[in-house]
Amino acid sequence: MPELRHDALTGRLVLLAPSRAGRPHTTSPTAARGGAGGGEASDCPFCPGHEHETPPEVARTGDGPPDGPGWRVRVVPNLYPIVGGPGAGRGATGAHEVVVLSPEHAAGFGALEADQATEVLTVLRDRARVHAEAGRAHVQVLINHGRGAGASIAHPHAQLLALDFVPPTVAVAVERFASTGDDLVLGDRAGAITAGTGVVGGDEVGAWCPVGSASPFEVRIAALAGGANFESATDGQILGTALVLRDVLRGLGRALDDPPYNVAVHNAPAMPQTAGGGTSFHWWLEVVPRIAVVAGFELGTGILVNTMAPEDAAEQLRALL
Hints:
This protein is α+β, with helices and mostly antiparallel strands. Helix content is 27%, strand content 21%. The protein starts with a strand and ends with a helix.
């Protein structure tokens, strides 16, 4: 039977309707699958030997000369930026960077070794810190994996956008934390454990399917002692979060045959940190496999429909990790 659920962390309403997963389909599928593959390494601007096909790098780890092979993680300005770049208009200034996860053309985050995953998340944290300390208002970190999740280049990469304004959704989230006076992330995790939707338990980092999941296999990950800003995370928090994220993505790959997915870091505005202030916010990661479609009901009502109970998704993921 359908059930209306409330997601206390975001404030959204979700209709849980598992029976709709069995409805017949007579339309042809058009959404592109995920897959770290796709394209040819010989034509890939993110593969070693093709460094000249990207803008000059702004950071790297590993050996070799700047803009040459030998790197392990490479950071370059986005050639097609959402914000920043020459001639950016009012409100669209800032920076948009691409972080290439590894030299391997088909190695998504879930395929990385432990030290590689940690190094990638450390680079993302350090680049976020650079932009926060430069006075940007907000830093957004994300991974789009597969064309169905918005990636246009197959070689696995992350992105970082440094904005000169605070997005309204971020401002609302910060206000929600402040108005309740509670750590909503820890409360959300506690509710998931009680409901049986926890995925990874631990004293330092946890992963869970929210009770009010808006789509099948949605997962949240958080360093339990994390503060307001991702760019202020400790090395230990980065290590634990990277390993849990890697393992969750591996589990999703096994459960869903390498689906397209998005990873988004929910981060507080950078301004309170750089100004020496503080906030009750708690940064966390959201992982969303792109296996469902937002349709007319969702657009018209703002209420999302989930065809899989998070209890079932969490049970499957626990078995696969």
